[in-house]
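Example record for the data management plan.
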Amino acid sequence: MTSELSLFPGWPPAPDPVFFAGLALVFAGLAGEICFRRLRLPRITGYAVVGLVGGTLGLSSTLDAQTSAAIRLLIDLALGLLLFELGSRLNLKWMRANPWIIVTSALEALLTFVAVYAVLRVFSVTPLTAVLIASISMATSPAVVIQLKNELRAEGQVTERLLALAALNSVYAVVAVKLVYGWMHQAYHSSVWVVMFHPLYLLVGSIVLAFVLAKACNLVFRSFGSQDHHAFVMLIGLIMLMVALVHMLRLPNSLTLLLAGIIFRNLEERPQLWPAYFGTAGWLLAVVLFVLTSLAFQWEYLALGGLAAAAIIVVRLAAKVVGTVAVAHQAGISYKQAFALGLSLCPVASLAFVLVADTYDIYPQFDPMLKAVVMCVIALLQLVAPLVVYWALALVGERKD
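Corresponding structural encoding:
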């Protein structure tokens, strides 16, 4: 017989994950507004601080496997939407008209890879781990760039090139990491078949699904119009379905959604534009993304990878500035603009976190140095990089807020 007391809540009450999620959003929103209105700092800094405080209090260690899986799916959805938006801003006709933008992108990414790899070898990091970290370091955080662009209402040559270079170096980073997986398989004594075909499966599968999603989104927009709110609901639904499909097929969510956005923008003769009313939904997902990424940081990572991370941040920033300044004249911008562009490429956040998580999903026993170094870089740059971007865009007069 059921006890009458079972009809009432136990004591003390046991909050569920929804309670903590709501609490985190309240504090993140409050911290973001205090940073922006009172301290004149980016809202993102406040979101990151809340995540770091939550991680320090041990909230991430209280999550069970089911909740952790749900959080990872939420991160992939939020990041996927932002990557799709970033890809949809990349105009390939502009690239063809000014190929030096692609040269700039390739140069800054290559210099970043070489500089980061060299520094890690000085710190005696193993070659495989160093290559993975160097590959991840090429990417500029899409989430940070898009949110700062919207928050500052930034417009101009540097802002447009920042979005383009962030999209391109994100593609380079994801492709490089997936290719390195072949080396990882070899190191862990997998069969030759896996070594050769798993990276190929990841890349080809992502391209095929990206094309399918882009065609479906174009069909929706042609049928209903890009300014129809109902069409936008269907667009979000299509992206959610694609994230679920990518998970089922074990394909890289980040590469698929970024390529889908690029194809969506450039597939038609008349380019499709991402709807302007992504607004509130996008901002909410971005807040969740920044908080959850910072929440994963643990202070013991500092002992293992803190010094290497600090060195990486310095040489990475220098490499990106050198890469943009070196071809500034040919690319059609001033040295001052190129310097600001190089500084603005410094953010590292959720994309790096996802690439690290993907690696440990395949090989949980992989070198812990990878996670320690990258998470230290993320933790510091989520606090500092938005300020650098603020200052860089103000330097060239592209901040409107």
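Summary line stored alongside the record: The mean pLDDT is 87.
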